[in-house]
């Protein structure tokens, strides 16, 4: 028997769903093997929402839903407790929505699974009162699955322009401009927090594709993750190159912000650089300006993606300001311009906490070669990398070089500047 789900045919052999890529020989082997009960949510039970779901294959996800619903149908006939399995299936419905797959295809996979469950022969024949009661339970179960999956799917749909998300963006704009936001917030059911994480977010061009397939819409993807993790009171404004998040302090601890930024990056399939500043509502405009100033500096220096605080970037920001001190530091490394291997050794040594063995391993040279190059750097710059004062000047010079000299910056690791 073959069942079509979303335009893909799946065969049923001995109660097992056969993927269309299986060869005739493989299907024959499956048919002669001992019948295996369908797997219960092989992936949904361990996959958390937002955890690399973009890499899921839609055909495999459809087959997973069909297998799960077939298992539910059989379990329903047997009178098993199915509450946990239905809850697990809701995770798959959310993944389906995140992938941008149509609700009609999800429902088609659900009904295909129930048909397969009915046709396996595990159900009693509805010729008695017991059989009729079993059939009624099956119909009730199908209705419950249909309603709960539709609700889970709709929770992560991109919101229409006149929805809560649009109103929340208007509240965020008002707060960032220093305008009165209370009346608008109350009108759309948003609570103004006493304190916010003001997070400036930038999206550097990725060095490689973050995940297969076209990226989802940025703004709706960001809003979906915020709604799922923070509820309706987290605010955001996003465009093609980045934006601003306003996260109430009571919703996320400071230590949890890094995980939030990683989840956002996974969802929109773009690397993110973020800078966070804490502020009360009246201080949000200034905090937003500061966060974006520091973000501009971090982006210009091509800092590694991730979440940063102003204390992490204070040196970078100060050394990026024009002035005689910056010019002196920039000139400090000029003797190394004709010796790129020395500049690379210095940056790598700093990135490895001055551990000569790790530096040598990273550069694929002998540790004695590292020592020799560090001595050359001392001779040519007058700064001894083996002393605290020398390291401070050399690290500061690398920061300046990374900001002002794009050619040299390409050879300098971002970790060396942290």
UniProtKB/TrEMBL annotation:
A Pfam family of this chain: HTH_30
Span list, region Disordered: 14-54
Gene3D superfamilies, per the entry: PucR C-terminal helix-turn-helix domain
InterPro entries: CdaR-like_regulators, PucR_C-HTH_dom, PucR_C-HTH_sf
Domain PucR C-terminal helix-turn-helix: 342-399
PANTHER family (alphabetical): CARBOHYDRATE DIACID REGULATOR, DNA-BINDING TRANSCRIPTIONAL ACTIVATOR ADER
UniProt name for this protein: Carbohydrate diacid transcriptional activator CdaR
